[in-house]
Design a protein that fits this description.
alpha/beta; four-stranded parallel beta sheet; globular; binds pyridoxal-5'-phosphate
Length: 394
């Protein structure tokens, strides 16, 4: 059970018994904390036997009371698929894909929003609001529909049309804004207090991270409590990467894994790569990108509130941050579809596109057990559907 909330920037503690956004002292992101020492004494991997797969399998380290019923649409428990074609072609015999497109609403955003909306409802929210580049909006809409909570989703005008349709089908109120997720966030923040909404923006509430961290728990379990050597993750706001890093620390505190960590590799689009620029410059924070451009809408995040956490994890792991061009990431997504049978979003395509450069620079060893995150499904992206799969004329 959750013990409290700790600011990831300044270490201030806050109670976890009410609706909360940022740290009351410094406006940093709040992390949920558990009594891992007590858990380590009694909780063992064997206790998982017989539990259903998915996010709520890890309920001891999630914000849910022992007898509480979780809000679920079947999120998590996604397959880890050995690469059949791309890995062998690159000389990477141990390349695998964590296929998050199997989640409800077809992206990994379901994990975080399942937990955040569960918790928001439990703590008495009346209306949820979120700025989104797309997939987080549709996941919010679906979980709010399931929870019986109204929600408002603010998204850029160029959000892929299927995602807007999905949000409408779930009954969300949609606000389209001129600009990126940054302007959508500003639109929400101008209204939250007057409207009485609860803001579930990335890392501006503590529990989306808790859902996302279960990707790390799943990787550890599927490797027999051994982590992969490298994780390649398409980074916008970075919650998945930060969440997995948190999961690994928790698993070590529980005594389920040792102190070894995968190299965390952050991949961004060349037209919006604030983390890559900061990584290269040796900075702890990232400069906002002025005119972000990319077809991978989930990567069009000009400034991430958790930039310092992404950079710290990448550096502590001996990882890297790299950018790929749009034509490369789209080709990566088409390869995943045509060669692996995984119809992946452009963001996921970025991880495949990054591999040759990562091998060349030595950031990844060809023999490394490498996991690329397929964070979302390609069906929501007309930019992929219109052009037809690679190498096949329409
Ligand atoms: C499919 C997809 N992949 C990756 C991302 C980036 O995720 P994060 O914000 O966790 O870095 C997003 C965000 O919208 C997304 O929709």
């Amino acid at each position: 059970m959750i013990e409290g909330l700790e600011c990831a920037a300044c270490g201030t503690w806050a109670a976890a018994d009410g609706l909360r956004n940022l740290c009351p002292a410094c406006s940093g992101p709040l992390f949920a904390r558990y009594d891992l020492e007590a858990l380590a004494r009694g909780w063992r991997p064997a206790d998982l036997t017989g539990r259903a797969p998915g996010v709520w399998r890890w309920r001891e380290v999630l914000p849910i009371a022992p007898a509480e019923e979780p809000l679920t649409l079947g999120e998590g428990g996604t397959p880890l698929l050995r690469s059949r074609s791309i890995g062998p072609a690159l000389g990477m015999p141990h390349l695998a894909f964590k296929d998050e497109s199997c989640n409800p609403t077809l992206s990994f955003k379901a994990r975080g929003l399942a937990v955040a909306i569960h918790r928001a409802r439990a703590l008495g929210a009346h209306h949820v609001a979120i700025p989104s580049a797309g997939n987080a909006g549709s996941a919010t809409a679906a979980y709010c529909a399931a929870a019986g909570l109204p929600c408002t989703v603010a998204m850029p005008f160029d959000t892929p049309a299927p995602i807007l349709d999905e949000c409408r089908a779930h009954g969300a109120r949609i606000q389209l804004v001129d600009g990126t997720i940054a302007e959508a966030g500003a639109w929400i923040r101008e209204r939250v207090s007057a409207e009485g909404w609860f803001d579930v923006s990335t890392l501006r509430e503590p529990y989306r991270l808790e859902g996302k961290k279960t990707m790390g728990y799943e990787l550890a379990e599927s490797g027999g409590w051994e982590l992969p050597d490298a994780i390649v993750y398409p980074t916008g706001g970075g919650t998945g990467l930060i969440g997995m890093w948190k999961a690994f620390d928790e698993l070590e505190a529980l005594g389920w894994i040792g102190n070894e960590r995968p190299r965390m590799i952050s991949v961004q689009a060349a037209g919006c790569a604030p983390i890559v620029r900061a990584f290269e410059a040796g900075s702890q924070r990232a400069e906002p990108v002025r005119e972000p451009r990319t077809a991978a809408s989930g990567l069009k995040v000009p400034a991430a509130i958790g930039d310092f956490l992404i950079l710290a994890a990448v550096r502590a792991s001996g990882g890297a941050a790299v950018a790929v061009e749009d034509d490369e990431l789209l080709a990566g997504a088409r390869r995943l579809a045509a060669e692996e049978g995984i119809f992946a979003s452009p963001e996921a395509g970025a991880t495949v596109a990054a591999l040759p450069g990562l091998l060349e620079s030595g950031a990844i060893d060809p023999e490394a057990r490498t996991v690329c995150f397929v964070t979302g499904h390609g069906i929501k992206y007309p930019v992929l559907c219109e052009a037809g799969p690679a190498g096949v004329s329409s």
